[in-house]
TrEMBL record:
GO biological process: L-proline biosynthetic process
UniProt keywords, alphabetically: Amino-acid biosynthesis, Cytoplasm, NADP, Oxidoreductase, Proline biosynthesis
Annotated metabolic or biological route of this protein: Amino-acid biosynthesis
Keyword Nucleus: no
Binding site for NADP(+): I11, G12, A13, G14, M15, M16, A74, V75, K76, P77
InterPro entries membership: 6-PGluconate_DH-like_C_sf, NAD(P)-bd_dom_sf, P5C_Rdtase_cat_N, P5CR_dimer, Pyrroline-COOH_reductase
Gene3D superfamilies documented for this protein: NAD(P)-binding Rossmann-like Domain, ProC C-terminal domain-like
Protein name: Pyrroline-5-carboxylate reductase
Subcellular location: Cytoplasm
Length: 283
């Protein structure tokens, strides 16, 4: 049985926040959608949240007053400091502050929220279907109970891991941005099926299920993907012919470069010096 929390607040009700909110409800981390409140500047986002049964408000102050267990900052990086001021304006020190704002460091959060317990986390959109991949780092004042809250909230919607903060940018480039890469691959795989004569509907279903099944094999067998690939590639067969074409197209190199580019962009958002990005991280 999944552990429950009393109430959670989201400042920002965009795509990522909505994915996590939906996941918390579907996995019964909260008793009802009404145990979650969100604020946003855009009325359309609030209307969609209200339709799902979540409490909504245009005031960040009301989110802070309502949330007992956690306040999740889910806004663009350039809005975080404004949000921090709104949080400080309310005397709620029971809730841990969890930021999913890309590139915003724990140091910046603690500077904007002096004396408060903060956590930095990078989730991804598959949280919406309970298959997310999230990594987090605790701030200097965060305690064991805060770790429990984070793992209950985000562990209920997928894989959750604690990592040193300097690795959060790499997490952003891999699992944070990764779903987009995989969606592109599924689309391309389906296009190949259509080119070979399958219907669009069949090709898309087969492509998505193939990716899902292959991922489950890696996770459940804990076998290196290179070994699993070799098991499919019989000598002179169809699969090795296809792999040969992927290699010619630079498939692996392009994927690595995509992760590196997204990681570098995350660092730039976090104001990491360009010389450090180039020299220390070789990006």
């Amino acid at each position: 049985m999944t552990a429950k929390v009393q109430s959670v607040g989201f400042i920002g009700a965009g795509m990522m926040a909505s994915a996590v909110m939906e996941g918390l409800v579907s996995k019964n981390v909260v008793d009802t959608p009404g145990s979650i409140i969100c604020s946003d500047l855009f009325k359309e986002a609030l209307e969609k949240a209200a339709e799902r049964g979540f409490k909504t408000t245009e005031l960040n102050r009301e989110v802070c007053e309502f949330a007992v267990d956690a306040i999740i900052i889910a806004v663009k990086p350039n809005a975080v400091q404004t949000v921090c001021r709104d949080i400080l304006a309310v005397e709620n020190k029971t809730a841990v502050i969890i930021s999913i704002a890309a590139g915003v460091t724990l140091e910046e959060l603690e500077r904007g929220l002096p004396g408060r317990r903060v956590v930095r986390i990078m989730p991804n959109t598959p949280c919406q279907v309970g298959e997310g991949a999230s990594c987090y780092s605790l701030g200097t004042l965060a305690n064991t109970q805060d770790r429990v809250i984070v793992e209950v909230l985000f562990g209920a919607v997928g894989l959750i891991r604690e990592v040193p903060e300097h690795l959060i940018n790499a997490v952003t480039g891999l699992s944070g941005s990764g779903p987009a890469y995989v969606f592109m691959f599924i689309e391309a795989l389906a296009d190949g099926g259509v080119r070979a004569g399958l219907t669009r509907a069949d090709a898309l279903k087969l492509a998505a299920q193939t990716v899902k099944g292959a991922a489950e094999m890696v996770l459940k067998t804990e076998t290196h993907p290179g070994v699993l690939k070799d098991q499919v590639c019989s000598p002179g067969g169809t699969t090795i012919a296809g792999c040969d074409e992927l290699e010619k197209g630079g498939f692996r190199s392009a994927t690595i470069q995509a992760v590196k580019a997204a990681t570098k962009r995350s660092m730039q958002l976090g104001h990491v010096a360009e010389t450090d990005i180039t020299n220390k991280y070789n990006l």
